[in-house]
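Why does residue order matter? Because the sequence determines the fold. Keep that principle in mind as you read this record.
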Amino acid sequence: MVRPEQPAGAVRRALDALYEGAAGLAALFMVGLLVMVLLSVTGRQLNFHVPGTDAYAGYLMAASGFLALAHTLKRGEHIRVTLLLSALTGRARQAMEIWALAAASVLAVLSAFYSGRLAWQSHTFNDISTGNDATPLWIPQLAMVAGATILAIALIDELVLELRGRRAPAQAEEAKHNE
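Structure:
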């Protein structure tokens, strides 16, 4: 089903900007990860050590992964098992899509809630990393909260589009050529 052409409303533009902004931030964190790895490698070669580079590389990797989830979903790049879905047509296929999106939305909302709860508890208990960087853990956990929340929003967005009959089938370019 192809989404009918309609002028983009303010909400659609805001959601698309949110997904693009999160992807841009994920890319920025990925560049930061590259800098941390290069700093660590260079330090080994030139006999100097910058404390915390391994920990910060891990934080940046997690942040880039979580923040890219919604954008990846909206581009149809998430791995989907479509064996059952491809055997269905019409209302049965739409019902299965709605069920899958609703279940994924619930799981994403729970993930966002419990990620937020973890970050709040880390802040409340002044939880810090065990490395020599002693970073307050709630700071890197915020990226997980943001990424999980934006993913939940994207899944609910997809569910609403599917319910309204305006959802374009999510299919990656590579998947279109694999038959």
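Residues 10-177 form one domain.
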